Amino acid sequence: MSVGDGKATRKKKPRILAITTDCCTGCAGSPACIEYCPIEACMFWVPDEDHPPFGRIEVDPYLCIGCQKCISKGPDGAFLDGCPWDAIEMVPTEDWEGLHGIALPDAPPAPPAS
Questions:
Q1: Nearest in space to 85 (alpha carbons), one of 99, 72, 94, 98
Q2: Which fold has domain 16-100?
Q3: Mean of the pLDDT values across residues 40-53?
């Protein structure tokens, strides 16, 4: 799970969201992308039960702020820190909402009461 710096929180719905593609391997349990995400728990590990220790990373669309720190594609083809396998894409939020039939709120939902 991404640790974040404890300072960044989502205040409004982003124009773009990070999504992982089928190319995601989870970096065999040491995912690079999670280290770059400033939002706690936005990116999380989903194990591949058929092929341990492999798995993949998923992004919580309710928490993503669209900062692009998790991707490796920079302007004009520059390579940045982030996913070394180019397995994260940024998609317009409206497209994601239309595909999933969900309207994302500006702020993330409150965590469940414990």
A1: 72
A2: Alpha-Beta Plaits (3.30.70)
A3: 87
